[in-house]
Specification:
Blueprint lengths: L2 E7 L6 H11 L3 E5 L7 H10 L5 E5 L1 H9 L7 E6 L2 H10 L6 E4 L9 E4 L2 E3 L1 H12 L3 E4 L8 E2 H6 L3
Parallel strand pairs: 1-4, 1-5, 2-3, 2-4, 5-8
Antiparallel strand pairs: 6-7, 8-9
Length: 163
């Protein structure tokens, strides 16, 4: 079984902060981006390739494609970071891999209708919190953290914004 270090939820998917800070922090050799829209967007694909650190393999897949890669035994020697755009996609990937992913790192989640600000760069909706709670009940360890040097925000702290 491959080593999945973390699943990062970040609506920008792969960008400099993820590439520079988190890839080194988790010592991953492979990044799997799971996103159905990106598959048809050549501009996004080029940008993600440019943001990938040297020596790191980038795999850009649909959500089901990401699950297929994670579940494929030929990738057993890989140390992987998975990135999805939102919690709903994260839940789909986690469930599709038989909960092989236990650590979830919430990152940049943009504001939007019905969303509450959690920290400087992250906003969540009631639906996001519901999915977070479901993942936690299934054994996922979830934190929100912008980069490895910033404050970790626990799920209990996130829930306080919704009381």
């Amino acid at each position: 079984m491959n080593v999945i270090k973390v699943l990062r939820v970040d609506d920008r998917l792969l960008h400099g902060q993820v590439a520079a800070a988190w890839v080194g922090y988790y010592q991953v050799d492979t990044i799997i981006i799971g996103n159905d829209e990106m598959i048809n967007d050549r501009t996004m694909q080029v940008a993600f390739k440019l943001a990938t650190p040297p020596g790191v393999t980038l795999s850009m897949k649909s959500l089901q494609g990401a699950i297929n890669v994670i579940n494929n035994p030929k990738h057993a020697s890989r140390t992987i970071m998975v990135i999805t755009k939102n919690l709903k996609d994260a839940q789909f990937v986690i469930e599709g891999t038989g909960h092989a992913i236990s650590d979830v790192l919430l990152g940049g989640l943009r504001s939007g209708e019905g969303k509450v600000q959690i920290n400087m760069n992250s906003y969540m909706s009631e639906e996001d919190v519901s999915i977070m709670n479901q993942l936690e009940e299934c054994g996922c360890h979830i934190i929100m953290q912008a980069d490895p040097t910033s404050k970790k925000i626990s799920t209990d702290e996130i829930r306080k914004h919704f009381k």
